[in-house]
Amino acid sequence: MCSELSDELQNKNGNRHIYAHFIKGLVLADAGRLQEAMDRFHSCIKLYSQDPEPLKQVARCLYRQDRFQLSYEAYLEADKLAKHPDAEIYCGLAECSWKVGEVARGVEWARAGVQAGGGERAGALLARLLLACDQLEPALQAYDQTIAANACGADTLAAAGALRLRAGDPRGAFQLLGAALAQQPGQHAAALALAAMLLQHGDASAALARLKAALTTHPTCVAAHSNLGLALLTRKKYIAGLTCLQRAVQWAPLSARAAHNLALALLICRRPASAFCRLANATALQPQHPHTVLLLAIALERLGDSRADAAYARALSLAPHDALVSVNVAARHGRAGRLQLAVEEASNTSQLLRDGNKADAHLASSLSVLMSLLENTGAQFEMLNAPVLENPAEDREDRNDVINDNLASDEMECKERRAGLVVLPPLIIGYDEFNIEETEEDETTNVKETAEEDQSNTSELVPEARRKAFDEDGSNKGYENYNTQYGKIKRN
């Protein structure tokens, strides 16, 4: 109807009606016919060159065509024609600057947009840009000011809640996420972040309900599939959990987080060879993550590979002040019969736990078990005690207990090992994949299609040569020459 009325006005006015050109351009832009829409806006500019509105629409069309530098220049021309500060132009300039890699300049434009009265859009954009600059506290402040000054929608509330959760403020995150879900019960971002928070606090049942809601809205969400698998693992539903984690890897074969979590589940299910394949991928994607390297060391040890010591050393060098890595290295020394080194590393772990701002009850309990095992083998401790906790953890059936229950028994079976403790890294809970633009969603779809094609040729999403590197009996003869991403580890 609008298009027909526009054409009628053009016929009556000899194709020189500016407003008719403008409306026809808006209709074409909404229909996705961007080049035709820009032609209409250029006609407006030719008829009256002092109006900034057609230039703003041209800049929008260029941005949608991924021509960000041209869009930036068009916004600058529109800003020159504007008689008053225009928050819409400033926000467009900030987005274009972000796209071309000049984030600092984008922050300046976003601040100008906030000062010009850009409201929720400018404030949320400023927060995202500050977060892209790794400025967490300023981003939180920007969200707080935006929410306090404007009646924000569910998307902004969900993003602010997820950032609060990332910053370690679960109470503030819960309020913001609850407000987002009150506005829009099917809001995917809020449901995913709230489920992650519930999962971190051990409430797997409530997390499962939220994750199902998130998957109903966004069935291709990698974080939701991964978190659902983790929630099922905490409830000892291993087959269902493995299925969800494998689906997450299928959707995102280049995600180090998804590979890490799947490898951890495979270790729980006593499949170290498959876990090693996933961890090799994860370390290749994220070679500086100490917990992933630690998992790789544990997998190598369970395969009987002597390169496990080098992997443990690598994890310790990446995180020398991580008590979790330290206690595992101490346990490895104990299992290998190096009691003196085990005692020294246990002492270092005890000191790390004492120096920490928050005593980890689970690690302190694990350290006590390790020292008891070492004492039973004849190790001598000099004034070494685990840190005393004000509220010691009782028998908890959380995910860490589930992991240790499934691994500790195996470590005691080998006669040459002395201390049978293994404390695996925590599960990596994801909740920040909701801020995905349409182009990224299309890329995810393409990755999934590629993964499905690869899966039709192989039973696992790993190269065929690497999968054949393991013998059917689980031995490691076939990958003696395999070099992981964190460095070449030669056999002793």
UniProtKB/TrEMBL annotation:
An annotated GO cellular component: ciliary basal body
Keywords of the record: Repeat, TPR repeat
SMART domains: TPR (SM00028)
Gene3D superfamilies, sorted: Tetratricopeptide repeat domain
GO biological process: cilium assembly; protein localization to cilium
Pfam family, one: TPR_19
Top-rank taxon: Eukaryota
Region named Disordered: 437-492
InterPro entries membership: TPR-like_helical_dom_sf, TPR_rpt
Repeat recorded as keyword: yes
Comp. bias (Basic and acidic residues): 463-475
Protein family according to the UniProt entry: Belongs to the BBS4 family.
PANTHER family according to UniProt: BARDET-BIEDL SYNDROME 4 PROTEIN (PTHR44186:SF1), PTHR44186
Protein name (record): Bardet-Biedl syndrome 4 protein
